Amino acid sequence: MKYIMLNDIRYTLRQEFKIIIIYLSVAFLCPIFLSYDQSISIERLIYGSLGFGLRINDLSIFEKLIFCFSIIVYLYLLLKVFTKDILNDVENLFLRISTKQWLFYKIISIFLISLCLLFLYYGTANLVILLLKKDISIDLFHLFIRNIEFIYCLQLLILIIYVAYYNKKNNLFYLLVITIIFVLVFWKRFINWNITDCHILVTIFILMIIIFTIISKNMKYIFEKIKEKMI
Amino acid sequence: MKIEVKNITKNFKKTSVLRNVTLTFRSGHIYGLIGKNGSGKSVFLKIICGFYNPTEGEVLFDGKNIFKENKFPPNTRALIEKPYFLPELSGYDNLKLLANLNKKTSEENINDALKITNLYEDRKKKYSTYSLGMKQKLGIAQVLMDNPDIIILDEPFNGIEEQTAKELRINLLKRAKAGKIIILATHLKEDIQELADEVYVFEDGNVKLDKLK
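The joint structure predicted for all components is written out below.
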């Protein structure tokens, strides 16, 4: 666990440092840019800055861009961290631990990296908002929890689509399940408070089972195809 | 233990890298694979390790086709291509972290592996400060420290000074006598001429026996 975690953190900080800096710069600049509109509410400023303004119906282009950018950063990091071991470290890892163990550690590692990054983003954005408006009258903790749940859920969904794409069979079945989950959970808008944390946790659990099923059945084929494509 | 490679063919898109290769590896022997760069040696080793699926054919470990079960070969360690370690940590810490993955390797085993590869004195130095030869040595130490039943080394003596290479050869012979299977691949025949019991030549995806002790 320690080896995989250290490796992933090191990789993220070293190889993806520019992405992280750009992402945190957005957290710094976004509230400043949005607060040019003096009439903006504190709620809108926070949601807009945090890139999760889905609760608000009339999103501006800028807010939509921030939302998309946040999603892309997390998905990019997910795929980079996931494929890193398959591309560089097969001998050290897969002859020592089982693929299931590796996958278990890997999804924990991806979660912790996303959690830390989001924490830094929240810290930066909210510090700027606090300096600008001298007020944050929103339950940030709940928002943070919902936010990380959303990110992780989406990361797992994309991971399933990614491995299902390289899987030699049953693609249709997995894609059907993913579509159903997507429609059920995301169609109603994730940020909407009508979806409880319990729903999301169950969804995350189902997604994890699907990933484990796909990878443990066809792991070697998937790994080889990923390697072939990436090198 | 016995590894049977039966009629292995490996194609990458339209290129055939290995054609109908059949070889058997038995406990207590050292096997040498010789061939130019790109002759298919590394792909062959990766198939044995389970990192590549053969297009045709099968690999049996004591009669079991572990690839069908989607597993990697048991008690096997390999160094194929360049070794991968964390640059910020020392050589010793890197090995310790790897040893913690399966919790079967003691501190004594790690130190022994470092001594065999003549890296013990430099064990506390950061990996990033290691020379190419030291990195290669650490890659070999990573393989030896777990005392595996199957040892697979691709170009093991690359960049290593003669004295260490000599000591490594002696150690590999000892391990073979203790019943291990050792497979060494190289593009230089001299590297394994004295060491290997059987030498196979890889050429354009085909394999032929070159030497039998």
